[in-house]
Specification:
The protein is built from 5 helices and no strands. The protein has 148 residues and is mainly α. It has one domain.
Length: 148
């Protein structure tokens, strides 16, 4: 995995969570739009309706659990990525990397907030990727225990 792919992991987890949240909203809408009990309908239709409600409620509960799990995963991954970014020496480069990979901001937004051109932000980002790659490589090197 490249350093850029490593840094983008939180972004893609966040997108997945947002997708699950959207799906959850649709399920909740569906659960409130199911027809209400009609005493004139026969028992078979009523049982099918209850099964439908039960299926939707079960899907909502499962999706809520999945979202909670992914939020925990996102928090852990974001903390890991932020720890790497915090090791970057240049504060401007560190800010660009933080805004991009922790706050998920677009290039134009980062440039505007920092008062730089987008091209300059790209240059700072390139420096950040290089430094983050060096930091990752130095952390991943196997450490040999001396012995003879």
């Amino acid at each position: 995995m490249t350093t850029k792919q490593y840094l983008q992991q939180a972004y893609y987890l966040n997108k997945k969570i947002n997708g699950y949240a959207e799906k959850l909203d649709k399920l909740r809408d569906l659960s409130t739009s199911l027809p209400t009990k009609d005493a004139s309908k026969d028992r078979v239709k009523e049982n099918r309706r209850r099964d439908s409600i039960g299926d939707v409620v079960a899907a909502i509960v499962d999706l809520e659990a999945k979202i909670a799990e992914k939020l925990q995963e996102l928090n852990e991954k974001a903390n890991e990525i932020e720890a790497l970014i915090d090791k970057i020496e240049d504060s401007k480069v560190r800010t660009v990397m933080f805004e991009r990979y922790i706050m998920f901001r677009g290039w134009d937004e980062v440039a505007w907030e920092m008062g730089y051109s987008v091209q300059h932000v790209y240059r700072l980002h390139s420096k950040g990727l290089t430094e983050a790659n060096i930091l990752r490589c130095s952390e991943e090197k196997p450490r040999h225990i001396g012995g003879g």
